[in-house]
Structures are given as C-alpha cells and as structure tokens.
Amino acid sequence: MGIDVNEMRKIDAEMHGLSLCDDGMTFYYDETGNCGKLILTDNGVNDETALECDFILGGVAFDGEQCPADTGQLLQDLKLQSSIKELKFKHMTRSGKSFLEFMGNSRVTTYMEWLHNSGLYIHYATVNSLYYGLVDLVDSIWEYRPEFAFNFEWVQYLKSELYNFCMEYLDEVLPLLHKYQFPNISREDKRAFCLEFCDFIQSYNDDTTEAGFGMEVLRQMLKDVGRHGNISLLYDNDSNILVSEYYTFYLSRCYTYKNAKHYFDFEKVIKAKMDETELISNGAPFKNYEFVESKETELIQISDVFVGVLSRVFRYLDSITVEDIEEIDRVKYAQAIENLQKLYELIIRADRKHPMLIQNANDMRLTQMRMVKLELLIGGTV
Question: How, if at all, do strands 121-127 and 55-63 pair?
Fold first, then answer.
C-alpha cells in the first residue's frame, strides 16, 4: 500500500498548526552529516560525530520553474582554479582557520553576498540523530496515555528535557539503552526497562528545577507504563539502531511541497529507498522528484555549499555561550558578522515565505538557542 501524499501533508500541517503550501516551486537539495545508521554499540555508538553534528538536508528554491539567479556569475566571482570542475563546500575552507576566520574569508563572503541578492529562498531540515532516536520513548507514553499529551508544545518540551538529560549523562544512558537493545525492547523486558530507566532518572534528577520537573513527569508516567501499559513504538524494531535511515526526510519534503518539483543530489542508497516507496495522490501514482548528478547541476553545487556553511554555523553556535559572544572582537571579525547577518536574513525570509521551509527534528531548546545566539552575534539583543 502506498503513501497518500495528500493525507500525509495534511497530518503534518495540522500537527504544526500551519496552513498547507500549494505554491508551485522548484527545490534543489544536498545533504551533510549522513552517518548511514546510528547504532548503539558496546562502547557507545558507531559514529560519535553523529552525536555532535546534525544531518542536514537543504539547499535553495524559487517560485515557479524559472531560476531568478545567475549561477554562472557566482562561479566566475569565486575565481576557482581551472582544474575544479564542480563547486563544493570544501572549496570554501582553508585548513587551520577558526570558525570566524572561515566565515569571513573572501570566498564565503562572495558566496553569501551572491546568495543574499540572488532572489533564491534557502530551505533546510535538520535532524539531531540522538534526539530523533530517543523520542519514540515519549511518543510511546502518549500513545498509552493520550489524555496527558495536552498540546504540541508540551510534548516538545518533554522531549527536549529527555534529550538534554540523556546528553548530560550520556556515558551511562547509552549502555542502559544497549542493554535492552533499544529501540527493540522485548515485551518480556518492558517492565524491567521502564523501571530501570525510572531509577536512572531518579538517581540524577533534581525535580526542584524546571528541567527536573519535566523529567519527574516523564519518570512517573514511564513508571505507570512499565507496570500497566505498553511502549508500543519500541517493540519489533531493529535492535540497537537509533536511526536506520534518512530517506524519510526526503519523502517529507516531497509531500509537504506537493506542487513543487524537487531535485536531489544523486545518492544511490537514498534513491533506491525512494524508488521502492510508492507515492499516491487521488488514487493515482505520484512522483514530483528527481535525482540528478551534481556535476551537471549548478544549483545542486550551490546547495552543497549552503548545507556545509549551515552545518559549520550550527556547530559553532552549539559550542559557545552568550558570554563567549560578548567577548568577540567585532572589529576584527566584522566581515564574518556581516556574512552571518546575511544568513540570518535568508532564514527569516524563508520562514516568512512558509514556515516548513525550515524544519527541525531536533531539541526545541537547542534550535531556539541557535537563533538567540545568532541574533546576539549580529548585534541584536535578547
């Protein structure tokens, strides 16, 4: 049985409280941070960088079918060596440079100026792999006790608290999950898993704090589930695989923007999974995407640079505090700050076009703080 794109986009829009976007647009995509699978091991996970860097699927888009941007001018202005036949993010970097030095270098400046003035929209979906792998625990609780899932914001708040608690005690929580082959808990082990996880929370949680309150709510509900209910979303999955694949995020873009045309950078594994998935609209087969070779598609190359820059920006924002921002030499790094201002304006422009151009399968607190820090960096106040 195929996936009904009309039903899926309606469910998504209602869940986020948004109107459907029926605009005819054209999207180009590349990705970064794809670890293939995120797997629990005896020593943690198979790829620790996946705990530090988001998977990002993103790029550029425009209304209709006619691109408003002069891509050839950008490639000319970047002054790449004649031996370079395809623009990639790696061509924007210099080894050994700090983030702010990177963000202010001449090629990044040329790229950001061009993108800012191009008439293109930026778009992206971020996936925090650990967050994405953990939150089925919360969703299982709500499936058992839906009367306590008061609203979308409340559910997101509790997911955020679970993620941040697990990140703080990662060296202990990963072995606990691995012990029970999470997310493939056996029905016989359901009670033991829930109660051991509850004990783990109680050992470290301070329920007098706001974050601690959220974890105490989860602990009490998980204890109830362990004794009387089911964690149905954590049964009959692949053992110890927190994230099995990322192709569903490709699919999501296709049904969210049903009337658009989507061009993805060719990825053999992703393409195979997409081709195996039958999309249906009004009872008929539906397809609004194509995989293309980046060497032949300049807007895919431009998308490659964009997701690379965005990934570096997010990693930097995640690594610094508000106090660190106050210490930045704004004269020395004036060009970097100007380029970050352009990125911020592109994000705001995309959000005003349609909020789903920017998607985050991510910790709510983390994504909010990224924007707070970005605003502070470019000279705003919070």
Answer: antiparallel
